């Protein structure tokens, strides 16, 4: 048994009115359990309603006592994780999206699953985080965190881009493709999986490099230790190219720009029910066949 939570901070999908019934349901349940409940400050602005709850920002939350419940899909949880990774505030995902590898509980499970978690019966899941820097000459023009992947892609253009990739200063290849995904084990079940990459278990200390529709058919996904530094320089692009972190936004790239990716010193701290495991999630989400009576 781990430490029980003393307060709950609710956050929901960005500017989506469909989350209101779910937020109200969570609010009513938590208050009925005499759990002090808050709504994240920016979330209240986005939905235009405080739900009658006191407001609390991520900066004011306490990693030792507070639980963040993120209502939405994996995108909502990823956005929350990027904001809380450096402080270590734990996050429980309630899925109101589609597939939901990270936000793996449904709103209908709240009354059954939430009380034990609030009392300290849960498992912690520390997920690695990537730190990416965009260098233009001698200037770092952008830096940010990614929980799933750092994506270098052709933007809105039709032509492939060309990237020169190095790992720890050693030349790997010059790749012509629609893009390159540098993913964490968490991101291995996201865009990287759609592009043909392998699934990595979350605790694996690894990074995954997956080319998107490469020009060379022998190009294959590459798994490396997460202690390395990956550098990808844009050497050719006829039209446009861009950098995205967790597909959250796109930053236009210029020829000669270099993206430097390392594992960040912080981790995203996810919370799951005690009995849950990664393979159970995979079976449920990917509809893998399982033998009768198999755990």
UniProtKB/TrEMBL annotation:
Q: Which GO terms describe its cellular component?
A: cytoplasm
The family note in this entry says: Belongs to the NAD kinase family.
Q: Could you provide one GO biological process annotation from this protein's UniProt record?
A: NADP+ biosynthetic process
Molecular function in Gene Ontology: ATP binding; metal ion binding; NAD binding; NAD+ kinase activity
Q: Where is the active site?
A: 74 (proton acceptor)
Instruction: List the catalytic activities from the record.
Output: NAD(+) + ATP = ADP + NADP(+) + H(+)
Where does this protein hold NAD(+)?
A: 74-75, 148-149, 176, 178, 189-194
Q: What does this protein do?
A: Involved in the regulation of the intracellular balance of NAD and NADP, and is a key enzyme in the biosynthesis of NADP. Catalyzes specifically the phosphorylation on 2'-hydroxyl of the adenosine moiety of NAD to yield NADP.
UniProt source species: Acidithiobacillus ferrooxidans (Thiobacillus ferrooxidans)
PANTHER family the record matches: NAD KINASE
User: What does the record give as EC number?
Assistant: 2.7.1.23
| Gene from which the chain derives | nadK
Q: What is the protein name for this chain?
A: NAD kinase
- HAMAP family tied to this protein: NAD_kinase (MF_00361)
Keywords of this entry: ATP-binding, Cytoplasm, Kinase, NAD, NADP, Nucleotide-binding, Transferase
């Amino acid at each position: 048994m781990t430490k029980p939570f003393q307060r709950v901070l609710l956050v929901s999908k960005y500017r989506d009115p469909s989350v209101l019934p779910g937020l109200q349901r969570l609010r009513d349940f938590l208050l009925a359990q005499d759990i002090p409940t808050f709504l994240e400050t920016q979330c209240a602005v986005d939905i235009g309603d405080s739900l009658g709850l006191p407001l609390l920002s991520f900066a004011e939350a306490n990693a030792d006592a507070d639980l963040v419940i993120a209502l939405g899909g994996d995108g909502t949880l990823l956005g929350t994780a990027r904001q809380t990774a450096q402080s270590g505030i734990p996050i429980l995902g309630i899925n109101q999206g589609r597939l939901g590898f990270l936000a793996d509980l449904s709103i209908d499970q709240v009354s059954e699953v939430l009380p034990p978690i609030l009392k300290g019966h849960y498992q912690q899941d520390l997920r690695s985080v990537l730190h990416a820097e965009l260098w233009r000459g001698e200037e770092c023009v952008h830096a940010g965190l990614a929980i799933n992947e750092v994506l270098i892609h052709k933007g809105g253009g039709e032509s492939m881009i060309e990237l020169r990739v190095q790992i720890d200063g050693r030349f790997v290849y010059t790749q012509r493709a629609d893009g390159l995904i540098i993913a964490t084990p968490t991101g291995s079940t996201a865009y990287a999986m759609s592009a043909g990459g392998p699934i990595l278990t979350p605790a694996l200390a690894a990074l995954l490099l997956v080319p998107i529709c490469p020009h060379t058919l022998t190009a294959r996904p590459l798994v490396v230790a997460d202690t390395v530094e990956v550098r990808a320089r844009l050497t050719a692009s006829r039209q446009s190219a861009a950098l995205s972190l967790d597909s959250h936004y796109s930053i236009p790239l210029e020829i000669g720009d270099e993206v430097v990716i390392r594992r960040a010193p912080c981790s995203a701290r996810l919370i799951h029910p005690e009995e849950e495991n990664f393979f159970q999630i995979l079976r449920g989400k990917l509809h893998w066949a399982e033998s009768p009576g198999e755990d």
